[in-house]
UniProtKB/TrEMBL annotation, chain A:
The lineage of its organism: Bacteria, Bacillati, Actinomycetota, Actinomycetes, Streptosporangiales. It is a multi-pass membrane protein. PANTHER family: OLIGOPEPTIDE TRANSPORT SYSTEM PERMEASE PROTEIN APPC, OLIGOPEPTIDE TRANSPORT SYSTEM PERMEASE PROTEIN OPPC. One of its GO terms (cellular component) is plasma membrane. The keyword Cell wall biogenesis/degradation does not apply. Gene3D superfamilies: MetI-like. Coiled coil: none annotated. Signal peptide: none annotated. Belongs to the binding-protein-dependent transport system permease family. It comes from the Bacteria. It comes from Nonomuraea dietziae. The chain crosses the membrane at residues 80-104, 111-132, 138-159, 247-267. It is found in: Cell inner membrane; Cell membrane. This is Peptide/nickel transport system permease protein. Residues 80-267 form the ABC transmembrane type-1 domain.
TrEMBL record, chain B:
CDD domains: ABC_NikE_OppD_transporters. One of its GO terms (molecular function) is ATP hydrolysis activity. This is Peptide/nickel transport system ATP-binding protein. Belongs to the ABC transporter superfamily.
Length: 280, 676
């Protein structure tokens, strides 16, 4: 079984195992952690402003008395959610556009690739910065769509060029000569044979999207109060406050670094295991 | 005098896979030793071990002596002095054997200068002389060309020139002609013979083609599962084989010089070197197997020059058993009789044309020429008939196939399938027509989606055409092609090449088509497997009343399988007719050359017959010659008087039905006529 061989090869990489354990631990922390905390993220403790980590508030409190533990985990939940959604959408879009452009060729290919190139040259950060304040506050889903729509282009070019060679494979020709409709051939024979590329790409996209989200939120363009994400927390706790009240900055920033690190470990390991030809 | 002596050579790769398990042979001056075996038998690994070219991590034991000096364990410096000087090698793929950034002349001169103290000019002059020796026209000019500017045959000649540059004592040839077309193969083998005459070197010829060995070798070593199983002179091996494997191998080859008779398949597949059976490795496939065969692996017992590794070889010798006695040929399925006069046409090609534009320029593409891939061909196939389309690579066979399979309007001419013109089909009709027209591809590795289990692969056409009881039909199909229905859950990579080809055939049969297009269905398979697949195709045709369009380059397989044959050259049909007539009295000079180029697995016949060797390479289809496309290479034209020769250049011959023939036409102004 190919899948078994791949699984064994993946599991033989210590970095994948470490990454997987790390990501699972962080996921557990983000979603199970709040159950154990004494405060919810919306509660404000008016008796403790900017109190350092202690027995009552494990990770300290913010300027307005929010429990740092609850708020940070809430922020991480949002960041993870955004990261995975963006990765899913952008990899899916890349696979679709690339496979259709490569498979059909001709005019459709020209149009799709022209659009891809256009998106590639647009300054994505500026555009998101301009558009997102105009969106209704709290509509972080729109923000996900915006992030995703600017992160699929390069993969889709790779997918297209791989499809060009897959299109000439004999099993694809065989399917065509059997009278299988083209869209079915794409989903049944082309995309599954690109799966190793897509899996690697999706993993890498998760960390990319989390960083992108954090960066935009830091500047106030992404997730906006009262909602929190790791980006807004780092923004609030950063700057001059970071020196006198380090817990406001260190916990969200540290979790961000760990999260991205573990996901990248998985991605690198998957690349080595699924794509033995690459030399990275 | 023995030059190269190999004793008990073994090669073990990392992970304990024993690729070679005790090979011994000697090669003397001017002697040709043929090493024969199927893929995975360890024949190439043996030669790489002799050259010291195996990757690090491969453990080599035993002894390799060149002029009495032990090569194994010798210091790299010392080996380098000998490699390329007293022992050199010719590889299968001449494209990857040359550095693309230096000219051919420079690379040969470099080989000269590494081992001889000569000036640069001297070496360059020698390079030109060598190129002339191997028959490259205008060697002064061609020496300045780069490898990609050479054709495959030319490159292999240059490779030979480089190998003999330093007058080696031993020349190891690893499948030197496998990648080449037959007419080019005949040229290269001729060059190899010249090279041997010039240098007097001993040659180790490694190949899977028993015909090539029959014509060239003095002695033969047959390898199976990493071990020699039989050894002897070429006559002994071909006329009195004593090991059942050799007997089966010889009996399973379709032969050009024999009428349509049943082929003898060897059951099963060669064992993987990681999982060898306990006793004789051939025992699981051997019809002469007795219980004692599983006890221990038989050693190669030497009696003089002759060696056989089989416990029953003495019995075979005494009873004078032959291959056909040992391997019973399965009975053919009786074919329903056909009325020759009432032919029902299933496929008709009428003056089909397919040209490709040749574009140049990055931003503004402009047309700089036209590739005449298929240039007006016509033929038809009747129900229950097999038409073979034969020709060398680049003659337009594959393009023709694609034009038929696409079922779209042709660029020029018409494709009529089951009475319907493919240019006038609606989408629905096209899909309906696809039920009746299916294809089997050449490469069984590439033809099956590696991500799908076999059951799904077979179910795909059924589901697409709304078939009910898909599971039942899948099992039925697997059984039809001789596979176990329980295989449906496995993935393609768990099957051997022959089994995969059977799956490919099962998929083509799924919708019960009437016409199957076979694109070189057996050329990627080993001989012993090939016979089984050919027999299967024959049986299926008889049982299901199929028609085949069979595309191939191997004329002996075609003779075996086809009823009618069409020979293509540069996008045109040069000869077409029944197999009996075309093979019996080939009329076109190209057909004659093609047939004489095929080596026969019979040493005496192969050495005594006269060969027509064609000059030069196939012209580019972008600039086809005027008049008759074959006139630039035609051996017959050279013998004609001047006015008749001019006609070949000026006027293009159409396919004309020959006198005295029922169904036989040739496109030649001066066809060969029957002597009756």
């Amino acid at each position: 079984m190919r899948s078994k061989v791949v699984l064994r090869r993946v599991m033989a990489k210590p970095q994948v195992v470490i990454g997987l354990i790390g990501v699972l631990a962080l996921l557990a922390l983000a979603y199970l952690g709040p159950l154990f905390g004494q405060y919810t993220w919306e509660q404000k403790d008016f008796t403790a402003f900017r109190s350092p980590p202690g027995a009552d508030h494990w990770w300290g409190t913010t300027q307005i008395g929010q429990d740092m533990f609850a708020v940070t985990l809430r922020g991480m939940q949002k960041s993870i959610l955004i990261g995975f959604l963006v990765a899913l959408i952008s990899t899916g879009l890349a696979a679709l556009v690339g496979a259709f452009a490569g498979y059909f060729g001709g005019k459709l290919d020209k149009i799709l690739m022209w659009g891809t190139d256009l998106l590639l040259v647009l300054p994505s950060f500026l555009i998101i910065a301009v558009i997102s304040p105009r969106l209704e506050s709290g509509s972080w889903l729109m923000f996900v769509v915006l992030l995703a729509s600017f992160s699929w282009m390069i993969t889709s070019r790779v997918v297209r060029s791989m499809t060009l060679s897959l299109r000439e494979r004999e099993y694809v020709l065989a399917a065509r000569y059997m009278g299988i409709p083209d869209w079915k051939i794409i989903f049944r024979h082309v995309v599954p044979n690109l799966s190793s590329l897509l899996i690697i790409d999706a993993t890498m996209n998760v960390s990319g999207a989390i960083i992108g989200e954090t960066a935009l939120s830091y500047f106030g363009f992404g997730v906006r109060p009262p909602d929190v994400s790791l980006g807004t927390l780092i923004s609030a706790g950063g700057g001059s406050t970071a020196i006198s009240y380090p817990w406001l900055f260190l916990f969200p920033a540290g979790l961000l670094v760990l999260l991205v690190l573990f996901i990248n470990l998985i991605g690198d390991g998957l690349r080595d295991a699924l794509d033995p030809g690459s030399t990275s | 005098m023995t030059i190269l002596e190999v004793n008990d050579l073994t090669v073990t790769f990392r992970g304990g896979v024993k690729a070679v398990r005790g090979v011994s042979y000697q090669v003397g001056r001017g002697e040709v030793l043929g090493i024969v075996g199927e893929s995975g038998s360890g024949k190439s690994v043996t030669s790489l071990a002799v050259m010291g070219l195996l990757p690090a991590g491969a453990q080599v034991t035993g002894s390799v002596k060149l002029h009495g000096h032990e090569l194994l364990g010798m210091r790299e410096q010392e080996i380098l002095k000998r490699r390329g000087k007293s022992i050199s090698m010719i590889f299968q793929d001449p494209l990857s054997a040359f550095t693309p950034v230096y000219t051919i002349g420079d690379q040969i001169a470099e080989a000269v200068r590494v081992h001889q103290k000569v000036s640069k000019e001297q070496a360059a002059r020698q390079a030109v002389e060598l190129l002339e020796l191997v028959g490259i026209p205008h060697p002064e000019v061609r020496a300045k060309a780069f490898p990609h500017e050479f054709s495959g045959g030319m490159r292999q000649r240059a490779m030979i020139a480089m190998a003999i540059a330093n007058d080696p004592d031993v020349l190891i040839c690893d499948e030197p002609t496998t990648a080449l077309d037959v007419t080019i193969q005949a040229q290269v083998l001729e060059v190899l013979k010249t090279a041997q005459k010039e240098t007097g070197a001993g040659i180790v010829m490694i190949t899977h083609d028993l015909g090539v060995v029959a014509g060239l070798a003095d002695r033969v070593l047959v390898m199976y599962a990493g071990k020699p199983v039989e050894q002897g002179t070429v006559e002994e091996i071909y006329y009195e084989p004593r090991m059942p494997y050799t007997m089966g191998l010889l009996a399973s080859i379709p032969r050009l010089d024999q009428e349509n008779q049943r082929l003898v398949p060897i059951e099963g597949a060669p064992p993987s070197p990681a999982a060898l059976p306990p006793g004789c490795p051939f025992a699981p496939r051997c019809p002469l197997k007795v219980d004692a065969c599983d006890d221990a692996e038989p050693e190669l017992v030497q009696v003089g020059e002759r060696g056989v590794a089989c416990i029953r070889s003495h019995e075979i010798d005494v009873k004078r058993l032959r291959g056909v006695d040992v391997f019973p040929a399965p009975e053919p399925v009786a074919e329903p009789p056909r009325d020759a006069r009432r032919r029902e046409t299933v496929l008709e090609l009428d003056n089909l044309v397919r040209h490709y534009p040749l574009m140049k320029g990055a931003v503004f593409k402009r047309r700089v020429g036209t590739v005449h891939a298929v240039d007006g061909i016509s033929f038809d196939i009747a129900r229950g008939e097999t038409l073979a389309l034969v020709g060398e690579s680049g003659c337009g066979k594959t393009t023709t196939l694609q034009q038929i399979m696409q079922l779209e309007a042709a660029q020029g001419g018409r494709v009529v399938v089951f009475g319907k013109d493919s240019g006038e089909l609606t989408k629905r009709e096209r899909k309906e027509l696809r039920r009746d027209l299916q294809i089997v591809f050449q490469d069984p590795m590439a033809a099956l989606d590696p991500r799908m289990p076999v059951g799904d692969i077979l179910a795909e056409p059924l589901r697409a055409h709304g078939h009910k009881d898909v599971q039942g039909r899948v099992a039925e199909l697997l059984e039809l092609v001789g596979l176990d229905p329980s295989y449906a859950e496995r993935y393609p990579q768990h099957f051997s090449g022959g089994q995969r080809q059977r799956i490919g055939i099962a998929r083509a049969l799924a919708l019960e088509p009437k016409l199957i297009v076979l694109d070189e269905p057996v050329s990627a398979l080993d001989v012993s497997i090939q016979a089984g697949v050919i027999n299967l195709l024959e049986d299926l045709k008889a049982r299901l009343g199929l028609s085949y369009l069979f595309v191939a380059h191997d004329l002996s397989v075609v003779r075996h399988l086809a009823d009618r044959v069409a020979v293509m050259y540069l996008g045109k049909i040069v000869e077409i007719g029944t197999v009996a007539e075309v093979y019996g009295t080939p009329a076109h000079p190209y057909t004659r050359a093609l047939m004489s180029a095929i080596p026969l697995p019979d040493p005496e016949l192969e050495r005594s017959r006269r060969r027509i060797i064609l000059e030069g390479d196939l012209p580019s289809p972008a600039q086809p010659p005027s008049g008759c496309r074959f006139h630039t290479r035609c051996p017959k034209r050279a013998l004609l008087p001047e006015p008749e020769r001019a006609r070949c250049v000026a006027e293009e011959p159409p396919v004309v039905r020959l006198a005295h023939a029922d169904d036989h036409g040739a496109a030649c102004h001066y066809p060969e006529v029957r002597n009756s």
